[in-house]
Amino acid sequence: MIDPKLLLHYNGFIKEFDKNETLISQGDEPRYYYQIISGKVKMNNYNEDGKEFIQGLFGEGESFGEPPLFCEVNYPANALTLAPSRIILIPKSDFFTLLENEKKSCFKLLKALSTRLYYKSIMAPDISSNDSEKRILTLLNYLKAQQNKSQKEFQIDLTRQQIADMTGLRVETVIRTIKEIEAKQQIRIEKGKLFI
Q1: Are 7 and 68 in contact (CB under 8 A)?
Q2: Could you give the CA distance from residue 91 to residue 85 in angstroms, rounded to a whole number?
Q3: Residues 26, 45: contact at Cβ < 8 Å?
Q4: SS3 per-residue string spanning the chain
Q5: Which of the 8 DSSP states describes residue 168?
Q6: DSSP 79
Q7: In 3-state terms, what secondary structure has residue 161?
Q8: Is the pTM of this model over 0.85?
Q9: Counting Cβ atoms within 10 Å, is residue 181 exposed (0-12), middle (13-18) or buried (19+)?
Q10: What is the DSSP string of 6-35?
């Protein structure tokens, strides 16, 4: 998203994290902007019953956890690594200086945040729906639109559990519904992998 050299120029630094390492805990005060060089990060929180809800999955070149930086509120979710990861951290004040001085980077960040807000907007009505097929297809089509502009078919790199945690469904419901969607030829399954 933002050129890593630019982040390093504004006092950013690279830190390496192991798999399953917590980067942010719900309630933490935001102190850094985070951008992934390599690896994968999950942002999540839990409801009163202890069920996990995945707020987002982020990979190479993506940033995460920005809204609390701007809102001056504590993090409403956790962030943890799903794989060994190298991440650039830049202190909040230095990040704001970068945005003031580098308009192109500021617009790239606005575009990324707007895309995430759009996703939340299209998912919100479906999350409240009882139609599991609609929830899952909305998520899968959104992921395809974000990652794959030119190819006809896109491989979904999520486990059934992650799909459940992103749609508010039980994993058993996701498995059953995916089979139903496949029977309607709206997705293809090959060796356990989903293609849309």
Answers
A1: no
A2: 19
A3: yes
A4: CCCHHHHHHCCCEEEEECCCCEEECCCCCCCEEEEEEECCEEEEEECCCCCEEEEEEECCCCEECCHHHHHCCCCCCEEEECCCEEEEEEEHHHHHHHHHHCHHHHHHHHHHHHHHHHHHHHHHHHHCCCCHHHHHHHHHHHHHHHHCCCCCCCEECCCHHHHHHHHCCCHHHHHHHHHHHHHCCCCEEECCEEEC
A5: T
A6: E
A7: helix
A8: no
A9: buried
A10: HHHHTT-EEEEE-TT-EEE-TTPPP-EEEE
Tokens of 115: 């895309």
Residues 40-92: tens digit of each pLDDT: 999 999 988 888 989 889 999 999 999 999 999 999 999 999 999 999 999 99
Residue pair 128/142 in contact (Cβ under 8 Å)? The answer is no
Can you tell me the distance from the alpha carbon of 92 to that of 90, in angstroms, rounded to the nearest whole number? 6
Using CA atoms, how far apart are residues 28 and 25, in angstroms rounded to an integer?
A: 6
Residue type, 168: G
How far apart are alpha carbons 40 and 158 in whole angstroms?
Answer: 12
